[in-house]
Design brief:
By secondary structure, this protein is α/β, with parallel strands linked by helices. It has two domains: 172 residues, 3-Layer(aba) Sandwich (Carbamate kinase); 145 residues, VC0802-like (2-Layer Sandwich). It is 35% helix and 27% strand. The chain is built from twelve helices and 18 strands. The protein has an eight-stranded mixed β-sheet, sandwiched between helices. α2 packs antiparallel against α3 and α11 crosses α12. The longest helix has 25 residues. It starts with a strand and ends in a 6-residue tail after the last helix. The structure holds aspartic acid (ASP) and magnesium ion (MG). Magnesium ion (MG) binds next to loops.
Length: 405
C-alpha cells in the first residue's frame, strides 16, 4: 500500500464520460489498496471560456477578481469527480485550495505556494477516503483566492506529493508520455521511458509543453518521482527522475524547438564597459525576456550585439533599440522575426565530445544556415530560418539515432 497523487488535466476531465472514467481509474487503485489524492484541472476549454467572459466586462480585469473567477473551473470538476466516486461506492471528499489550505503569496494570477496544511488530507486518508483537490489555486494570508498561473494544476499535484511524501506523482494527460520530439513534426518520435529533471526542464522551457515548468522545478527540488501518462491509453508513460548510470547510454534524449522567436541586432556599438547593460536594461525594464545573447569581438573599436526575444515582443523591442542606438551613437538596428530555435538536449553531452560537430554537420548537409548558437552543459541550441524547422528537427532526430529503439 502506497500513497499516490494523480493529477488529471483538462482533457482527462473534459466530459461527464471522462470524469466517470477517471473515477473508475481511482477506484481500481483503491481496490489494490493504494491511497489516492486526486488533483483536477478545469474541464478542457473552461479556463479559456472564463477568461473570455472576463474580457467582455473589462479590457484589463483586476487580477484578484480573475483569480476568483478562474478558480471556479477546478471547483466544478472536483465536486463532479467526488460525486462520480461516491456513485462507485468509493469514499471521497473534495477540497478547494483554500479549504486544504494551500497557502500562497499574494501575487494574483501567478502565485507561489508557501506552505501546505496537510491536516485535513491526512485525516481523510486515514479514514479510507480519496481526497480530491482543486488544482491551480490557493489562498493568501488574507484569505484571498489566488491561482498559480496557466497549467498550475501540475504544480499543485507535485507540491502535494512533496508535502505528503507520496510514492509517485502521476500526471494524467492526453499524451502517453514525453517524446524525443514533437510527433507532429517527426512522426518517428519515440516515447521516452525515463528522462532527468534537468532534461525535462530544458525540453519544457523550449516548447515541449507537457508539464508546467514550475512543477518540474519543484519535483526536482523535493525529489518527487513524476510520471507523465495517458488517461486514455494503458502504459507506463515517462518517468522523470534523477540521473542514473543506465541513462548515460543516451547521448541525446530529445530535440526541442521554439517557433516564437525573433532576433535583433544593433551594429557598430562602441566597445566600452557598460554597453551591454545600456542595451539590455531598457529592454528588461519593460519586462521583455531576453534569451540568447551574442556579442562579437571588436575589430574596429565597435562591435555588433545580437539577442533573441519572444516574437510577440519584437516590435516593442525594436522601438526600444532604435532609441538606444541613437543615444549610443551606434550604427543600425536590424532584426528578423521569422526565425526559430532548435535544441538538442541530453545529460550524455557532459561526458561526450563531438556532439556539437555532429549537430552542425547534420544541418550543413541539409543546407541549413545557422544564424546563432548557444550552449549549456546539457543543451546546444541553434537559431535558423523558420522554413527549416521541420527539416532541421527531422535531420537531427535521425542523426542522433532517436528513432531507434
Ligand atoms: N485550468 C488551468 C489552466 O488551464 C490550470 C490547469 O489546468 O493546470 O491553465
Ligand atoms: Mg496542463
Amino acid at each position: 500500500m502506497a500513497l499516490f497523487v494523480y493529477k488529471f488535466g483538462g482533457t482527462s476531465v473534459g466530459s461527464v464520460e471522462c470524469i466517470k472514467a477517471v473515477a473508475e481509474k481511482i477506484k481500481k487503485a483503491r481496490d489494490k489498496g493504494d491511497d489516492i489524492i486526486a488533483v483536477v484541472s478545469a474541464m478542457s476549454g473552461e479556463t479559456n471560456r472564463l477568461t473570455s467572459l472576463a474580457a467582455q466586462m473589462q479590457p484589463e480585469p483586476s487580477d484578484r477578481e480573475m483569480d476568483v473567477l478562474l478558480s471556479t473551473g477546478e471547483q466544478v470538476t472536483m465536486s463532479l469527480l467526488t460525486m462520480a466516486l461516491h456513485s462507485l461506492g468509493c469514499s471521497a471528499r473534495s477540497y478547494t485550495g483554500g479549504q486544504v489550505k494551500i497557502l500562497t503569496d499574494s501575487t494574483h494570477t501567478k502565485a507561489r505556494i508557501r506552505e501546505i496544511d496537510d491536516t485535513n488530507i491526512k485525516k481523510d486518508l486515514d479514514n479510507g477516503r480519496v481526497v480530491v483537490v482543486a488544482g491551480f489555486q490557493g489562498v493568501d494570508e488574507n484569505k484571498n483566492i489566488t491561482t498559480l498561473g496557466r497549467g498550475g494544476s501540475d504544480t499543485t499535484a507535485v507540491a502535494l506529493a512533496a508535502a505528503l511524501k507520496a510514492k509517485e506523482c502521476h500526471i494524467y494527460t492526453d499524451v502517453d508520455g514525453v517524446y524525443t520530439t514533437d510527433p507532429r513534426v517527426e512522426p518517428k518520435a519515440k516515447r521516452l521511458d525515463k528522462i532527468t529533471f534537468e532534461e525535462m526542464l530544458e525540453m519544457a522551457s523550449l516548447g515541449a509543453k507537457v508539464l508546467q515548468i514550475r512543477s518540474v522545478e519543484f519535483a526536482g527540488k523535493y525529489n518527487v518521482a513524476l510520471r507523465v501518462l495517458s488517461s486514455f491509453k494503458e502504459g507506463n508513460g515517462t518517468l522523470i527522475t534523477y540521473e542514473e548510470s543506465e541513462m548515460e547510454k543516451a547521448l541525446i534524449s530529445g530535440i526541442a524547438f521554439n517557433r516564437d522567436e525573433a532576433k535583433l541586432t544593433i551594429t557598430g556599438v562602441p566597445d566600452l564597459p557598460g554597453i551591454a547593460s545600456k542595451i539590455l536594461c531598457p529592454v528588461a525594464d519593460k519586462n521583455i525576456e531576453i534569451d540568447m545573447i551574442i556579442q562579437n569581438i571588436a575589430a574596429d573599436k565597435t562591435t555588433d550585439f545580437t539577442f533573441t526575444v519572444h516574437r510577440n515582443d519584437y516590435q516593442q523591442t525594436k522601438a526600444i533599440l532604435e532609441e538606444v542606438c541613437e543615444s549610443l551613437e551606434a550604427k543600425h538596428v536590424t532584426g528578423d522575426d521569422s526565425i526559430v530555435k532548435i535544441s538538442i538536449v541530453g545529460v550524455g553531452m557532459r561526458s561526450h565530445a563531438g556532439i556539437a560537430s555532429t549537430m552542425f554537420k547534420t544541418l550543413a548537409d541539409e543546407g541549413i544556415n545557422i544564424r546563432m548558437i548557444s550552449t549549456s552543459e546539457i543543451k546546444i541550441s541553434v537559431v535558423v530560418d523558420e522554413k527549416y524547422l521541420e527539416l532541421g528537427v527531422r535531420a537531427l532526430h535521425n542523426a542522433f539515432g532517436l528513432d531507434k529503439e
